[in-house]
Write the structure tokens for this entry.
Amino acid sequence: MNALSIIVGILFALACGATGGVLFLHRARRVHQEEAHYNLHTPHLPRVATAVGALTGVVIGFLALYFASYSRGFDLVAWIGRASYLLVAGSAGVQLLTLGRIYVLLRREEDGWGRKPQKGTLGVKRLERWRQLRQQYRHDVDLRAHDDDVLAELSGVLGTPLLNARRDQSRIPFYGYLGTVCGILLMARELGGITEATETFLVLQSMAVGLVLAFQTTLVALVAFLPLRKVADLLAQRLDRLEERWLRLRDEDTTRN
């Protein structure tokens, strides 16, 4: 590997990082537009999204260069299997950004609800909507029915992205299984090509490549999936507790009146 190849590789990785940063920044701006409907404010999200996207892109770029550096030739099955690493890396980057944002918003809601809800939180919206419903509906059945709709809407602001994140996480193990299938296929192809004149060492070497691909891709996918799913489950539990506190406001206010 000469100096020119190294320079080209670095530029390629940087280009991947820039592409990832732009894509994640676009995602953050779209999220900001959705937050504006509820007066939520996450000023650092674009910068964080750009950094996470750039890091994800650089990782994907270096992985692609690493695989290309030791490949003896182009093999479609092998590259499909290696692409599972890239898919896992990209998915993990998106998950980190999504779960990080939900964590920040949940923590803000929890810290602000004990006292007077902070400006720019869903807690403020919760109080405003409740006061409006108290003025519009006198019958307890109507009041509770419409308040349930409000609770579902406000909970969905954080619950829907969290639900989508958990759904997207379920695809990560399948990316690993993709590499496993490709690795097994590579081994089967090498076994099918064995003849009396075949050099045993070369066959075993080729089979080892497929074996490593088969197990390592699944391992990487599971290592990425399990912590992300655990974090998502913990955030879901915190969101449930927040919903209970919002619901308690209605019960306490109804009891007093």
Remarks:
- The chain has one domain: 71-256.
- The two ends are 79 Å apart (CA to CA).
- The longest helix spans residues 200-256.
- The helical segments are 3-36, 45-70, 76-113, 122-136, 140-169, 172-192, 200-256.
